[in-house]
Amino acid sequence: MPSPTVTTGDVVRWGLSRFVIADVQSGSAVLCRVKQVRDMRYRADVPVHFPDTITLGLTDGAVIRCKPRVCFNLADLVPVGSVSSSLMVRIKIAIEREMDARRIEAGIPKYLVV
Length: 114
What we know:
The protein has one domain (10-106): Roll (SH3 type barrels), CATH 2.30.30.110. The protein is built from 2 helices and 6 strands; from the N terminus they run E-E-E-E-H-E-E-H.
């Protein structure tokens, strides 16, 4: 049975966790994890606002942790929903900020491609 097509902005189940697809390129997907967080938040966390909370079946306090992971096999991903375009914009901005922060912490100038 062929796997359903996944695109940017889809929420998928991978293993036991939910992820948002931040990008799809040549058969691989960049994923950001959906987490329930009450107290402590990471610098790359993007809160999920009310409309997306309802459509995704999440409770209050859900965040998208924008520390990207890569899935090399799209067939492993099971789509369960999608996020709004406004949340997707906030996720992409948070990923860029996180990657910039990691470059600074590593002491790598921004203009170098690693």
